[in-house]
C-alpha cells in the first residue's frame, strides 16, 4: 500500500496539514510526490527525474483550470462581503434583533443559528458578519448566562448546514464543485439531482444543533468586560451606502437563482452597489483589497486542490487503491464508513470541505462503483465525506469565525469551546446518518 503513489501522497498531505504546514504548500508538495512516485511522463518520452517533475507541474497547472469559476466566485463574494462590512447594515440588524431575541436562552441560540444561515445563502458574506454581530451581543449572553459553546455550535451550524443542503449562494458553489469533479471522473449529474439528495445532509446537522443546545443548557458565568462596540445603536439609520449595498445583495441573489451562476450574480451585485452608492467609486480599490483578503486564500486553495485531483488521476494508482479499499471495506456498510472517516481526516487537515472535493472524488467514485452504490448514494457519500470535518477543524472558517466573535473579550477558547463541541455534535451525526443514507439510497 505504501508504494501506491495516491495513498502515500494523501498520507503525506494529511501529516503536513496536521503539523500546521501551510495548506497550499502541503497540497503542492504532496502532488509533486505523487507524480514523481508514479514516474508520470509525456507519452513516448524516456524517463528522467527533471522531465517527470516538469510534466507533473504541467499536469497540476492544467488541472487547476477546473476550479477557475469557483475561485472567481470566491473572490467576487469576498468583495460583496467587504462592501457590506463597510456599511451599517449588520449593525442595524443587531439593533433590530437584540430587542426580541432575549425571550429565553434557547430562543436566542436558535435565532443566532437562523441568522447565520443567511450568511451562506441569502446574503453570502461567509464569516464576515460574525465579528460585527456577536461582540455587541456578548453582554446580553452574559446576563442570560448562556454557555458560549452552544452559540459556537449555532454559528457553525449556520455556516455549514446551508451550503451542504441548498443550491443557493455558497451552496450553489459547493454543488457546482461536486458536479464538476464527478464529471471529471465519469459521472455526469445535474445540479437538481445533487439538490434532490443533499438536502438530507441537513438532518444530522439539525440533530447535532438540538443536542448541543440541550447539552449546554446549564448556566455558565462570564465576566462583563467593557468593549468598544457602539452603545447608541438606535441612532444608526439606513443611508445611501446601506440602501446601495442592500440593492446589490438583492440583485446578486435574484441573478444566481434565475441563471444558476454565482459569479454572474456576484459581479452584477458589485456593479449595482457601485452604481447606487453601496461602494463609493473612490473606495473600490480598498473594497476589492479587503474582499481578496477575506476570500482570496480560499480561492487559491480551491485551484491547487483541483490540480492535485488531476495529478492523482494521472498517476494511475487509483484503481489499485480502490481494489485494496474495497477488499478492506467488506461491503457497502464498511465502505461507506471507511469513505466518511477518510473524508473526516482529510477535511480536518485541509480545513476546507470545498478543497476536499477534488481530492476525494477521484478515489471515491470508482470505489463506490466497485461496491455497488447507486448514483444518489455516491452523491451523498462524496458530499458528506467532503463536509464532515469542516466543523471541528482548527483551520476551518466554520470554527475560526465563531471564535473570532465569541472570544472578543478573551473568555472563549478556540479548541475547547469551539472545535471540540462542534466536532462532537456535527461530525459524529454526519458520519452516522451518512452511512445510513448511503446504504438505503
UniProtKB/TrEMBL annotation:
Q: Which domain of life is it from?
A: Bacteria
The protein here is known as: Na+/H+ antiporter NhaC-like C-terminal domain-containing protein
An annotated GO cellular component: plasma membrane
Name any one Pfam family assigned in the record: Na_H_antiport_2
Record domain Na+/H+ antiporter NhaC-like C-terminal: where: 155-435
List the InterPro entries.
AA_Transporter-Related (IPR052576), Na/H_Antiport_NhaC-like_C (IPR018461), Na_H_antiport_N (IPR032813)
Question: Which stretch is the leader sequence?
Answer: none
List localization entries.
Cell membrane
Q: Which organism is it from?
A: Campylobacter ureolyticus ACS-301-V-Sch3b
What keywords sit in the KW lines?
A: Cell membrane, Membrane, Transmembrane, Transmembrane helix
- Putative Na+/H+ antiporter N-terminal domain ranges (all copies): 4-101
The annotated topology with respect to the bilayer is: Multi-pass membrane protein
> Membrane-spanning residues where?
12-41, 71-94, 106-134, 154-177, 197-216, 246-279, 291-311, 331-351, 363-388, 420-440
